[in-house]
Amino acid sequence: SSLAGDRTCGSLETLDAPGQYFGGLTAHSAIYDRARERMLVFGGFDRDGLIVNGVWSLSLPRSGPAVWSRLETVGTPPAPRFAHRAILDPDGDRMIVFGGHDGAVTRNDVWALSLSDPPRWTELTPAEPGPAARAAYGLIHDPVGKRMLVFGGTDDHRLYDDTWALSLTGPAAWSKIDVPTPAAVVRRYPSAIYDPRGGRMVIWGGSSHGLDRDDMWALSLTGPPMWTELTAGNESPQPRDGHTAIYDPVGRSMVIFGGGYDLNDTWALPLESKGCRTRVDT
C-alpha cells in the first residue's frame, strides 16, 4: 500500500524460488531487512496447522517481481512457535526473536539470527533475570537506547502489565522499566511502534479480559517513563486485536492493518496532538 499521494493497495507480483512453495503462515513474525531489500518471516502456523520454525525471505526489488525463497540457516534454530514477535537490530545486523508459544508451553527465550551469509541462529542468554514467559505482547526496537522493549502479553493464564528492556550492545542483559501501569493499558495482542520524534513506544488496540480495545497509549522513553493516553479528533477504528502496525515518518502516524478474524481495513492514527484518524481507502 502506498502511503504517499493517492493511497492504493494491491497484491505484489510474487514468484516462488525454483523448487519451493510458500504456502502461507499465521501468527508468525516479520521484519524488514532494509540493507538487503527483503522481508523476513519466521515461525507461526503453516497451512496444515503445524507450528513451524522456518525462515522465509521475500525480496522487494525496486523493479520486477518479488520472490519468495526459503532462507537456509546454520546453527541450532529456535523451537517452533507462534504469537511471538521479532525486531531488526540494524547495528548488530540481526533479527531478534523473543518468547511466544510452542504449542505446549509459553516461552521467554531470546534468539538472534545474523543476516549476513550464512545466516546463523544463536541463542542469547541475558545476564539478569528477565520477563516471565509470554506471548501476544508488544515489541519495539529503541534505536536511541540501543535496546529491545517488551510490553504486556499473556501466558494464557494472566495478562502482564510490565515493561522490560533488553540491551543490544555488549553482553545482552534484561532490565525492568520501573513505571506505574494504568489498569486500562494491560492487554494482549496490541500493535506497538517506536515514535522517534516523540521518543516513545506507542501501542494501539489489543484485547483485555475478552474485550477488544480501540485506545492508544504512549510510554515515554526520555526522562521519567510514564504512560499517557493519546486521543484524536474523531472516532477510533473498530476495536480489534491481532492487527499489525508500522510507523509512517512522513505522515508521522501509526498505520494499522487488519486484525480480528476478518478485518482488512487500513487506518492512519495520528501521533501529533489533535490530529484526526483517517481510513486509508484502497
Structure description:
It is a single chain. A hairpin with a 4-residue loop joins strand 10 and strand 11 (147-151). The N and C termini lie close together (8 Å). This protein has 282 residues and is mainly β. The protein is globular and about 50 Å long. The strands form 6 sheets. A 5-stranded mixed sheet has the order 1-5-4-3-2, with no helix packed on it. A 4-stranded antiparallel sheet has the order 6-7-8-9, with no helix packed on it. It has a 4-stranded antiparallel sheet with strand order 10-11-12-13, with no helix packed on it. It has strands spanning 14-16, 29-33, 38-45, 51-59, 66-70, 85-89, 94-101, 106-114, 121-124, 138-142, 147-151, 163-167, 174-176, 191-195, 200-204, 207-208, 211-212, 216-220, 227-230, 244-248, 253-259, 263-270, 278-279.
Task: Describe, in short, the structure shown.
With 282 residues, the protein is mainly beta. It is built from no helices and 23 strands.
- Encode the helix/strand succession as letters: EEEEEEEEEEEEEEEEEEEEEEE
Instruction: Report the uncertain regions.
Output: none
Distance between the termini: 8 Å
Radius of gyration over C-alpha positions, nearest whole angstrom: 18 Å
- Oligomeric organization of the protein chains: single chain
Output the number of helix runs. Answer: 0
Largest sheet: 5 strands, mixed
Note the overall shape: globular
Strand content: 35-45%
